[in-house]
Request: fold
Amino acid sequence: MSIAALKPMTVEEQAITAKKAAKTLSMLTTEEKNEALRITANELEHSYEEILKANEEDLSKGKEKGYDKAYMDRLALTQERIGDFAEGLRQVADLPDPTGDVLSEWTLENGLNVQEVRVPLGVIGMIYEARPNVTADAAGLALKSGNSIVLKGGSSALSSNMKIVEVMHRALEKTKIPKEAVQFIASTDRAATQQLFTMKEHIDVLIPRGGASLINAVVENATVPVLETGVGNCHIYVDNKADVEKALNIIINAKTDRPAVCNAAETLIVHKDWLKENSDQLAKAIKDHGITLHGDEMAADALLNVVPAGEEDWANEYLSLDLAVKTVGTLEEAIDHIDQYGTKHSEAIITEDRETADRFMQLVDAAALYHNASTRFTDGSALGFGAEIGISTQKLHARGPMGLPALTTVKFMMRGNGQIR
Amino acid sequence: MSIAALKPMTVEEQAITAKKAAKTLSMLTTEEKNEALRITANELEHSYEEILKANEEDLSKGKEKGYDKAYMDRLALTQERIGDFAEGLRQVADLPDPTGDVLSEWTLENGLNVQEVRVPLGVIGMIYEARPNVTADAAGLALKSGNSIVLKGGSSALSSNMKIVEVMHRALEKTKIPKEAVQFIASTDRAATQQLFTMKEHIDVLIPRGGASLINAVVENATVPVLETGVGNCHIYVDNKADVEKALNIIINAKTDRPAVCNAAETLIVHKDWLKENSDQLAKAIKDHGITLHGDEMAADALLNVVPAGEEDWANEYLSLDLAVKTVGTLEEAIDHIDQYGTKHSEAIITEDRETADRFMQLVDAAALYHNASTRFTDGSALGFGAEIGISTQKLHARGPMGLPALTTVKFMMRGNGQIR
Reply:
């Protein structure tokens, strides 16, 4: 057994080991990294039986603990899902390598040449919950962009994650990427996670992926810079000049296509004139798709079976077939509501009036703004970024879907022949 | 008196007011912002007498408190220095406006148009020390990039800062920029500053400018994202293939041109073979420029009057005419030393061997890497960025000198005709 992650290293030793490996990794060519990712993909595919066996352990423990069906589903692996990991790694291998790109270059009057060059961040700390696919996906994106990664997955997927990392290490041993570039924290001790929060010297960025409480715990306690991802309380504003068919299609799609994801709609804001005219059609569409409405008084009067909505509904990321409905008289009221309750993720306006749409898109402060389209497009693969490490809901560094460039920083490289000031 | 900043608003009310003003500001044209900056520049120039009077109060309090000469110098204003603020605002007006730039644009197969557009961050919280010029400089950069700013200056410059803000407010009243976009926290209560640290809803980024203890206090206690600036423990590595004249010029320039700034050199790492051959010339140059050396044993043997160096010297940002000297036998030893003690600011190698230089620049993790040039060039105006809000020593968002683009984020704007997933 030579698997570094399974040796009893401390979390700090793991981070230091990862940092050292990052230096080696940063010197590799794109082709060397791509080949390593493809070899790792093959190894994962061939090792599906041992991975499924490890996954069985997690599943039986999960059953004992009485996890619900949705949770068990996220935890469960199949041969096909393992094939998807492998395919994901191959897709990352096919993406362009952002590192080494010269973003800008100029020469000062004194002859000093200045280059701004994209380089890896160094070591990424990834803190996530039950889904074992994140283990392979995140490692793939990190390695392709020249970064080491320290993984801390949810304890309910511990056996699966450890096995996936073991298989990845076995594969990396046949490649130029040092296997030490992928570290997995096997301890389920909460203190182990918290150590990651303040290890500024060894970890360059933390990426938490999961529910609001996980993300808040990281943001509030970390001194290591955080890439905040995730929570989406997304709104669809139906303006009085909205086309009925577009509005209904988009509302139903954004709410029901995948209700549990962050780019699903959670509140419908509707202009009262539009509602008056189209309440029957809206009510029918809502009913046909099994959506439960939580609305204000005017919404309750116009629609059927509306549960009275309170503060908590406006702020709620339901992640279910529930939808809050707020009626407004003006665009400004709609924007004020979004300002107050939105999470700066994805916000849509449905209108045939381009000026109103432009005003909405300029004044609403969010990563992704939509005119006459579903919020469901806020997603790296849907928007054509290739794989994504998460969707940033912060404003610094990266905003919206984060592909490989979000895992890089820059260096300014100055070359001279003795220039002084 | 209608000066918002001088009304007894709470810090939270000031931040909310700034956020509201940021919306108005974000809708202005570049020309409207530029005109406002020019009017403000004129008003500051014309108001020099009242600003100098306010500055007198700070200076006489400073004298009572026995501040040292360097500190008093940073605090002191003259008509000329006020003219420099004004000129700085005019230069910012002349810089290109980054907001509104479409950074990328594409159309998906389904017809959905995607634009990545640069937009203001919103509200910037600026926490700084004694220098009153930061008040006008930071406000100018914030306004030009469409951001409101909440200023918290050092209490020793309180009268000067309040007067500068009063004059700026008077000028802004004649312009399209709402004067509420510039907020100044007049309270000298430490709690007022700390409130800024956690006001995530109203403040988008904190920028601390000053010494290491100020910056660390912000980084450790803030939940608002921080742009970390400043501390520079910069090294010059003189390789065994270094040209003597270039090496001496660069060492002397980087150490003595302005010893108190962050891009000054603090440690000389020197290859022992080069030192053996050139110790006399180096010793003479050091002596001629009044530099005090703190060196390891080999440096002490080769040079004159060397104070023995310890751990604390390698880590020290002297900001004075002191220089640590470390001897090494290989490039790798030099890089290891920088890895251990550097602050990822500016690092230089002097060598005639391009391959060695490339290896140094690739392996050393810092914002600015120099081959055969002085570290003193890490500065927005020296590198041609125009004005800078600070020098980032972090890796996320912005790295190195930060001009106007560092004060922006992006929005993804999607325009469709009913697209759903």
